[in-house]
């Protein structure tokens, strides 16, 4: 029986009752990002530069955060490349093509519309593609709720 192909994109949007400047600060400041995301980052987000650290969520403290910052457009877009659901420290994921994560902000009459998009799952190796998509899909649902709570 054929299986459905794994979708290529995860998209989550949430209305946050806070000005764009406050939501931007929660996303673009690496320390604030770490507080709601659950990661201790080693350095600020700078275009073209690595972002490294460790996950701080209980049970995942062994997971190294490794991303490459793509764009930092103040109060509009923060994006980075990473390897989705790369949680096994015994596996070298560096040979895989990463996915792109984008945080897009738009002002609204009541605050900010935050849209998080992760794309490129079609490049994740087939053996782990469906699991990476499923886990990140669940993860982004949780994370947009966490940033809403943090920013409000």
TrEMBL record:
Gene3D superfamilies: 3.30.530.20. It comes from the Bacteria. InterPro entries: ASHA1/2-like_C (IPR013538), START-like_dom_sf (IPR023393). Residues 18-152 form the Activator of Hsp90 ATPase homologue 1/2-like C-terminal domain. Belongs to the AHA1 family. This is Uncharacterized conserved protein YndB, AHSA1/START domain. It comes from Bryocella elongata.
